[in-house]
Write a structure and sequence with these properties.
5 helices, 0% strand
């Protein structure tokens, strides 16, 4: 109990000293990175294309198209995923320059894109090992999982881009209306 009281008193003394000297305590707020915002917009475009191609592939599982057509569609998805991977690398390289919400976005996108790449690889392997079985349940399950995951990722990236745009607009209106900025809002 006595030690806790001493720690609390010491913490209060440090806080009072910092306030008296004008030192800012807390986390430095990093402004949004315009470069990261632009990369997120590019990622959104590629994610939407991947989502569309994955939905097309999923529709093939309900028709009698050849396994070669499945393979071409998987290659299209792979191209988009590779482009997303390149953007993800750029985002990761810029992560430290981003604002806290941008860093969270980068982390979430990275985790999901890795999951997407692994699932797509498994789907391609399934087709390569069993090209004549594109209408069998195992392959259909892989394709459906790809379609669902791609859709969730596209929506997540779209939501981050929408948040970025709404946040920028709100900040612009704050300045235009000469409203005080709320601490921790930047």
């Amino acid at each position: 109990m006595r030690i806790q009281s001493m720690i609390r008193n010491f913490s209060l003394a440090v806080l009072a000293l910092a306030l008296a000297s004008g030192t800012s305590i807390g986390f430095a707020q990093t402004a949004d990175s315009e470069q990261i915002s632009n990369l997120l917009k590019q990622a959104k475009s590629h994610a939407v294309l991947a989502e569309h191609d994955a939905a097309t592939l999923e529709s093939y599982t309900r028709s009698k198209v050849s396994w070669e057509l499945h393979g071409r569609q998987l290659s299209r998805i792979k191209e988009h995923v590779n482009e997303l991977g390149q953007l993800n690398k750029q985002l990761s390289d810029l992560r430290a320059e981003g604002s806290p919400w941008q860093q969270v976005a980068i982390d979430q996108i990275d985790r999901r894109l890795r999951e997407m790449a692994n699932l797509l690889t498994a789907t391609i392997n399934q087709l390569n090992h069993n090209p004549s079985q594109v209408h069998m349940q195992a392959y259909r399950d892989y394709v459906k999982a790809n379609c669902e995951l791609t859709s969730r990722i596209a929506k997540m990236i779209e939501d981050f881009v929408d948040y970025d745009e709404a946040k920028s607009k709100a900040e612009s209106l704050e300045q235009k209306l000469e409203l005080p900025t709320i601490a921790g809002n930047k």
